[in-house]
Every structure is written in structure tokens, then in C-alpha cells.
Amino acid sequence: MRGKLKHIQSYITSLEYNYTGEAFFVKKKDRGFRHVTSTAKLIIREALPIQCVEAVFVGAYLTADMAEVDRFPVCFRSSLDGRVYRHIVLAVRSGGKWGSLGLSRRDKLMYKELKYDLFSKLVGDFRESYASSWHRLEQVWVGFPLPHDISSNVAIKWKVLVV
């Protein structure tokens, strides 16, 4: 499973980060998983640079057929020099281990290998990564697990629990 997830991360990274400040894709997080997957298919087809939420959409779509992988959105709010920054990754759990998929301007704030025994250890690694980038991590939210049915229209709960 580690190899498959690393391969998916390599693909996400190959799309490159969108530094323009303008989104190339319409993302409506309040819609069901069907919207997430249709947006992910469009991102894959167009192969334009993406931002973190689009990386989560692609990661969720590319792992949807992996029934043995649980996927959770994890949202971060940090600050630096009075500015607030928001970020999201896709936490993944398989075989009792945690890791993450995603994309960021900073390498330390996206992919984490499937190696953490506890979710709290994964979040702790992100906290250390934020600190090493001089960011103050203010809040972390975790959502409900994403469905594996790509045609599901059930609303996704992106932020359910503050950790």
C-alpha cells in the first residue's frame, strides 16, 4: 500500500503547485463526493497546476477504489507575521498506519509516508513542519471519512472535530 500511495503522491506532485492565486477549477466543497470525483477527473484531464484542495480532490478520487484505505480531510489554519493561512491534506490510514497525500508550497506540508501508528503522531509531524516554517499552527480540523462510492451525493463533512 505504501508504494501505491507514494505513486499517487508522485502523480499529484507532477501536476505542480498553482502559484497564480487564481483557481483553474470550480470546487464546491458543500456538494457530494460525485462533485469531488468529477472535478478530480477534470483536473487529471486538463493537467493544469493545482492548489491544496484540488490535490485532496485528486487524492480522494485516485484512492476511492482502495477499500482498505480510510481517507479523512485534515484542515489547518496557521499564521505568520499577522497573516492567516489555510491548508488541507488528505489523511490516509491503512494497515493500522497513518500518512497523508496533498500538495503545498512547502514539501513538509503535504505528503507524509504511511508510517505513523497514531493519528496524533501524524498531526504532530505537521505541527513540527509548520514550526520549522516559522508558522504558528492555530487550529486543526478533521472531517468524517470520505466515501469510496464515487457516485455518492452524500455531503462531505470537511470539518467535524477540532484536534
TrEMBL record:
Q: Which domain of life is it from?
A: Eukaryota
- Locate the active site: C52, H87, S104
The cellular component terms of Gene Ontology attached to this UniProt record, alphabetical and capped at eight, are: cytoplasm
Coiled-coil residues: none
One Pfam annotation reads: Vasohibin
Q: Tell me which InterPro entries the record gives.
A: VASH1
Name listed for the protein in its UniProt record = Uncharacterized protein
